[in-house]
Amino acid sequence: MEFDFSIRTLLPDEVTIINKDHYLVKSSFFRSNGAADNNLRNRENLAKVVNTLGQKSAEAQGLKSAITSIQQLQYSTQRCYILKAPESSKLASKVVGFLKVGVKRLFFVDATQQQVEVNPLCVLDFYIHESCQRQGYGLKLFNFMLEKEEVLPEQLAIDRPSDKMVSFYQRRFGLHPPLRQPNSYVVYKEFFSSYSATSPKKWTDHQPRGPVVLRPIKMKSNLKVRHHPVREDINGQVTNEPNGLLFPDNQPKTHTDVEKPESNDVIGPRKEEDGKTDSKSMISDTHDPLKDLPRAERQLQLLRRYY
């Protein structure tokens, strides 16, 4: 597929991912300087590429209107993978096709005719230009998406697949027959083995009704808990510094949780193991040069002297 502008700078990689976080999609540019004008032109060219691909896909599927556009990508979490021909091929710097995916909340019927609720990654639009089909471009683009999304082909739900798409799944991945759903999506029997069922909602009569919610079996968590030492002030209370300890129950430790000494004296004579008082640590009040100082300053000086 050719355009009247160069796509080498617009699509620098062989497969480019376009979503709402793409710098040409999420930003707005003004004609204030040369750099802004160039970005604005690139944005218009990118919109032309995406909209043209969406229109070509709609024509190939016999749809009344396109289901892929730059405006749709801008205001959703869907991702569009655009494939261009490698520089070494005869179709160098030409757009070959695209693949759009996104997460949907859907209701399916499994093999036991039980209605289930699931949030799978869905193939929403897939198109390879007619002149590039049967050359391995579709499989290359699909495998790239599977690697980036970290999913298997049987874990995907396909929205209104054409006969070519069903044949592609059978020929390339050995998945057959398709399980067609009432909402026009298609999955395979291996799809349900990737999820575990939870209990359906129970109503006032304590009878479970409604769909069974499916959850992925393997759940990954990116939560990292950082532990820091407790910092206490001179009165034995935990300070509210940002590097305080994150406790297992995620609750900050209060002053009531800090173990206080048996004696109320902040500073006192040290006790030896046999119970006798260490004479070296005794301070005579009559010869104490810190006696007349304020209490807080006196405690600070004593801390510096003995610790």
Structure description:
The protein is extended and about 100 Å long. The protein is α+β, with helices and mostly antiparallel strands and 307 residues long. It contains 6 helices and 11 strands. A 7-stranded mixed sheet has the order 1-2-3-6-7-9-8, sandwiched between helices. Strands 4-5-11-10 form a 4-stranded mixed sheet, with no helix packed on it. About 18% of the residues have low confidence. The longest helix is centred in the N-terminal third of the chain and has 28 residues. It is 24% helix and 17% strand. A hairpin with a 5-residue loop joins strand 4 and strand 5.
Show the helix and strand layout.
Blueprint: E1 15-18, H1 23-26, H2 34-61, H3 70-74, E2 79-84, E3 95-103, E4 106-109, E5 115-118, E6 121-128, H4 137-149, E7 157-159, H5 163-173, E8 179-180, E9 185-187, E10 195-197, E11 212-216, H6 295-306
Parallel strand pairs: 5-11, 6-7
Antiparallel strand pairs: 1-2, 2-3, 3-6, 4-5, 7-9, 8-9, 10-11
Q: Give the total of beta strands.
A: 11
The residue fraction in helices comes out at: 10-25%
Which structural category fits the helices and strands?
alpha+beta
Shape: extended
Major pleated sheet: 7 strands, mixed
Order of helices and strands: EHHHEEEEEHEHEEEEH
Q: What is the CA-atom radius of gyration, in angstroms?
A: 34 Å
Low-confidence stretches: 29-34, 219-232, 240-261, 263-269, 279-285
Question: What distance separates the N and C termini?
Answer: 78 Å
Largest beta sheet: strand ordering: 1-2-3-6-7-9-8
User: Beta fraction of the residues?
Assistant: 15-25%
Q: Provide the residue-averaged pLDDT.
A: 76
Q: Give the count of helical stretches.
A: 6
